[in-house]
Design brief:
It is found in: Membrane. The protein has a two-stranded antiparallel sheet. It has one domain: Amino acid/polyamine transporter I, CATH 1.20.1740.10. The chain is mostly helical. The protein is globular. Helix 2 runs antiparallel to helix 7, helix 7 packs across helix 12 and helix 7 crosses helix 13. About 50% of the residues are buried. It has 14 helices and 2 strands.
Length: about 450
Amino acid sequence: MEGESKEHLVDVTRNINGETAHHGLTVITACLFIAGEMAGSGVLALPRAVENSGWFGLVMIFVCCLISGYCGVLLGQCWIILQERWEEYRSDTRDPYTSIGVRAMGKVGKYSVSFANNVQLFGVGVVFLLLAAENIQSLAENIGHTEISFCYWNLLIAGFLTPFTWLGTPKDFWPIAMGAMGATAIACVILTANLIVDHNQVASVTVRHDPVGFTSFFMAFGTILFAFGGLSVFPTIQHDMKKPKEFWKSVTIGYSIVLCMYIPVSAVAYFFLGHKLDDNILRSVTPGPMLYIVEILLTLHLMMGLVLVLNPFLQELEEIFRVPNKFGWKRCLLRTCVMACVLFVTESIPHFGAILSLVGGSTVTFTTFICPPFFYLRLCAMKGDWREKFVPLHVKVMCWEIILIGLIGGIASTYSAILHLANTFVPPCYVNITAADAA
């Protein structure tokens, strides 16, 4: 009993081989990673998504949170299965999600997961950079009375963040996750208060809502999917934990935190602003000290979140190009090139709302709502020199229902986002910076 108590105090664990591990993320730090890398863009984009889908959008936020959280737990179970059955996954692994795909579906699983994950994480990085540039542009105009296009802010932010992307794995920069989550939580409280203050000043004005159509509804659905689409990095976070089997606790706490951020802001904005909501809610709030604080906090989150979400993508690229798993010039060069590519896309498609819905409806749907339940069922059904995993009928039914919802919703959302991009074309920054800035 005394030995168990001491082991708990120093927070060590034993891996499957019985060896003691004294490093890695705890349940709390892992949940902060989950909340930190997921919440930023959702806080800014979900209010408009609710307006596009009506009050039912609030229900969709809650339901998608539950489904995404459940899929996160299933994905965690998949990684535990791999570690129990195959010894190579108990040591350092750069691409755990792809490894799950390989064991569940062979080469098809490997390449499909790798492609979807990389496109998704790259797309999230693009969205985060665009939003951060928009926020800093607004701050410069309102506080510094300086009009500088966000196209230029993209350049400055990308240059500033590039050295931070050279860090190794999540366990090397857990303070960034804590900072991102804390900044977003404080920003949500202030933003909600700001919306209430704005409403009280014009309480006599009737709030109108836009009619809900097919395209607007599924654009909103894609945005909501994106807001809960952080599962691509979950296996990487879990693999860096001291006790990977407790990952479900981190998922539960992390999603609870995220939901507590999303619902109040989205509900208050929908009922108080209605059709006046912009794709970025900060553009719909009256300028003032409260807004400036929120912009600073959420910009910090987006910048820190960009470093977090790109990390698994960078690790997989290093595996492909056989870059040593340690700090060196090859790592710095590769990761700098990736940041340059992210910057190029932000300058080419300066329209974060459409990109967000497109990524949410396509790759996020695939990696968050389709792969985890499907891979879990496949791994549990496999026969071999290991203990069989029994899956109750109700769990099987639930998994297939989630897959079906993901397929239908993902296809419709992707179609709607592509249609919206085609109908609202914005010239790239390097073609017409004035038109891009006015988008």
